[in-house]
Predict the structure.
Amino acid sequence: MGMNFHDQKNRSSYMTRKADQSWLKSFQQLVPITKVERAIDIGCGGGIYTKALLEMGVQSVIGIDFSEVMIEAAKENLQDYNNVSFQKGTAYDSQIETDSADLLLERALIHHLDDLNACFSEGFRILRREGHYLIQDRTPEDCLLPGSKEHIRGYFFELFPHLIEKESARRYTNEQVISALKQAGFSKNTEVQLWEVREEYKDKEQLLNDIRERTGRSILHDLTDAQLQELVSHLDEVFPSGEVIVEKDRWTIWKAQKE
């Protein structure tokens, strides 16, 4: 089934959260934000991380997405900012001029792509010399960790093993990403792992509603409505009532630089 990013009913799926302090702190350790005049956020969705870049002090940001619906959502999300713009484009053809960006962010994007080399070559083209490239995504190892009161995603695969094959097939390994970065011409390639707080829920019901709505979770669009209800019922049993739930996901962040 999969998620349709062009469907108006999914318009708000990637605009309602805020980037957590865990992400902001990690990002600031990786990139000299004060030196970034222009950043590009490819696969910006509803603009959650576009906004985070601006709030950290990046002087101007262009958000790129292949979906007009997502671009509309991002414009609404950042309507109070005057140093940001959004336009249609892809990771292979961003419509950004050559040698024009100090920073390129691609968060939760590459698992949707079937050609890393083309994506990274486009990134190399648009970055200036000494420009920073940050790719954030999950490896198969990141995704398939056991379910817990923090790593809620793990329960998806424990309950529905058929999702494991799909998830593993669409995720790149660390070795594949590093190899493609080198082939594209990037140097100083490093990777770090990050446990990023995805959401803090005031109670169990708020979490269960998030699951019912499939909010920001494209993998859940591969479940039928009946399977989704089975997942909700399972999580209802796992989590006690009346407690705050802090959900985290483990990510890998690759940092590359154009010399």
